[in-house]
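Subgroup meeting minutes
Present: P.N., E.W., G.H.
Scribe: E.W.

1. P.N. recapped why we're keeping a running log of single-chain structure predictions: easier to compare across weeks, and new members can see raw inputs and outputs side by side.
2. G.H. added today's entry (429 aa).
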Amino acid sequence: MKRKIAFISEHASPLASLGGVDSGGQNVYVAELAKHLASAGHHVDIFTRWEDAKLPKVIEWENNIRVIHVKAGPMGLVPKEELLPFMPAFKEDMIEFISSEQINYNLVHANFFMSGLVAMWLKEVLNIPFVITFHALGYVRQIHQGKSDKFPPERIEIEKQIVQYADAVIAECPQDKSDLIEYYNTPPEKITIIPCGFSAKEFYPVNREIACTLLGLQPDEKILLQLGRMVPRKGVDNVVRSLGRLKETGVPYRLVVVGGETDDPNPMACPEIARLQQVARKEGVEDKVTFVGRKNRDILKYYYCAAHLFISTPWYEPFGITPLESMACGTPVIGSNVGGIKFSVLDGKTGFLVPPNDPDALASKVHLLISNPSLLQQMKKASIQRVKENFTWRKVALLVADLYQHIQVPALVSEETTKESINKKSQAA
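Output recorded in log:
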């Protein structure tokens, strides 16, 4: 059955440049899942907050996909931690659009808790069932970030409401499912584990020397790569500190850090880069750390392929798409033994798992693998095989579409009835 689906992703637009504080895996998830559902014949409208006045209200983005900008709060960038008060306006503008376009959506797929809140309101007003992928859970975030967590305290209660009203909840890995059950009393029968994926069109092996030449990197250096959002919880400082330990080996290691708010590495625009530069100076490895700024997705494969190892050691990680992209390029991963990373990376086969915030353990595994070319080669082959078998976006989309099929969709009603229902219920919701 081909469906008309409304994606809600309030702060993470599929059109956004990646690598900034509020743009990362969720943007990729929404974009790639929508593309693969659309290629199967489904129609997807992606509702996201209107930040750029230069963009039109509606963009015909891909075949069967529209990006619809929703008026909610001031036009311009607003940190996602400050968006909750604008969600009633998001709901109202979305309802107005649905009414004016006279659309009958079969279901809503919400992404993140604020989108889930809007989806819950829409279900009340329009009787549209909804699925939610949280991408991160407030309770887990508070455990790891404590007072550094700037989200409103009511986030957790909102999430608890959402899991009760949702028709289905997508957990991205077994840890995500356990957290939903333990901390939110989510009925297990509502939860389906469906991981994130990688794009085989974007990420594939490229000759390392060619990749190094294109990027201006030295092929004779042992390159370690960190790529993603520049925020403290990603643990990039842990990687920098491990480089201080590796300095003693005499091996020519270099850490390349991709990400930030601008295309050039600007510590004024990205405080995390400034902090990491201080850590590098303290460790005496400032000359061994290269920050390259934010990069377009079409060249990321060259960074993965130029690297001997990709390193991702966050404090916690709901899933983590970058390890999949790295493995798809044939680059093994050393990652934190947390969340989705301990699900996607097979310890000892496609890389190693290490404790977060442990630069000594990380340095030990890095040197072990770099010093063993045959093991490194085995892991390269195993990495490619694992992601191709388990983590393509095509497979992810098939699993999501199958989940959609099991959700009972209300019978379609006439346009007149839809508009009357909206007019009556939107004022009460």
